[in-house]
Amino acid sequence: MAWFKKDKPAESVPPPRSKGSEGMWLKCNHCREIVYRKEVDRNNKVCPKCEYHFPISVTERIGLLIDLGTFKEWDAELEAQDPLSFQDTKSYRDRVKAHQEKTGRKDALVIGEGLVNGRRVVLCVFDFSFMGGSMGSVVGEKLCRAIDRALELKLPVILVTASGGARMQEGILSLMQMAKTSTAVAKLGEARLPFISILSDPTFGGVTASVAMLGDVIIAEPKALIGFAGPRVIEQTIKQQLPDQFQRAEFLLEHGMIDMIVERKRLKETVGTLVNHF
After folding, report:
1. How many other β-carbons are positioned within 10 Å of the β-carbon of residue 13?
2. Which domains does the chain have, with CATH numbers?
3. Nearest Cα to 67, choosing from 125, 113, 110?
4. Distance CA 133, CA 125 (A)
5. Closest to 188 measured CA to CA, from 133, 218, 150, 235
6. Which end of the chain is more exposed for a tag (fewer CB within 10 A), N or C?
7. Torsion angle of alpha carbons 258, 263, 266, 267, nearest 10°?
């Protein structure tokens, strides 16, 4: 029984929102300006004020890069198990099931084959809406299967990342995917098949520390956040203030971490040119 009782003030009821105005505006993650949603949609999900590239869905990403109607998905049925019987506020099984129902996908990576300006490629796309695009056993396995088929078919591999890193609910099994996928990418190098890595906002953790930074060409979208640990964690660790725009794509390009920054509207053209060149 509480010793003191505090009367709660009467809650004020907010005025009803107009259905017409709800969802019409977006707040940019970079410049923090309020922008008109339809204008952003018309501009390939790019902020009209600062050119920040908003995250897009896997379906939109495939449509952006692959010739219409040519993408064929592989191994869509693979789904995560629960090897550690992991539970935090919710069991891992329930968490995976909830994201499967939310996204309509079994896990956080989509792989398949398609055409880029008439050229056959293998495409792998992370789905950030599925548990933050985290890399667990299924993601590692699908990526390795995609590379194995690329080796068999002698096709280039294009990887689009959007991830918070390794999936903690699978523990060391998740971290092992870093070595597993890195080894698979090395086989592409031995076979002299191109591996093009496209980093979208955000790309962090074990995905950055392994496969994302192994591309023969590493492309980033403008103003994408890319790194291993978050800036606050780094500042608390080294007890120093980080440079302005630290971990943004432009900062990484200036310091030699990536090869180029490409606007979304020019991404397919650039990838097609690289594939033809290789």
Report:
1. 6
2. 22-54 (no CATH), 55-277 (3.90.226.10)
3. 113
4. 10
5. 150
6. N
7. 50
Distance set, CA 39 to CA 25, 48, 65, 241 (Å): 10, 8, 21, 36
The structure tokens 């599925």 sit at: 130
* pLDDT tens, residue order, the chain (278 aa): 444 455 555 554 455 544 444 578 988 988 888 999 999 988 889 998 888 999 999 999 999 999 999 999 999 999 999 999 999 899 999 999 999 999 999 999 999 999 999 999 999 999 999 999 999 999 999 999 999 999 999 999 999 999 999 999 999 999 999 999 999 999 999 999 999 999 999 999 999 999 999 999 999 999 999 999 988 899 999 999 989 889 999 999 999 999 999 999 999 999 999 999 98
Which of the 8 DSSP states describes residue 258?
S
The residue behind tokens 């790194």 is: 227
DSSP state of 247: T
CA distance 159 to 202: 14
Please report, in angstroms and rounded to a whole number, the separation of the first and last CA atoms in the chain. Answer: 74
* Peptide bond connecting 156 to the previous residue in cis, omega within 30 degrees of 0: no
From the CA atom positions of the chain, what is the Rg in Å? 21
Q: What are phi and psi of 12, to 5 degrees?
A: -80, 135
Amino acid symbol at 161: T
What is the rounded CA–CA span in Å between residue 188 and residue 148?
Answer: 9
pTM of the model: 0.88
Neighbours of 82 (CB within 10 A): 15
DSSP state of 8: P
Cα(67)–Cα(195) distance, integer angstroms: 19
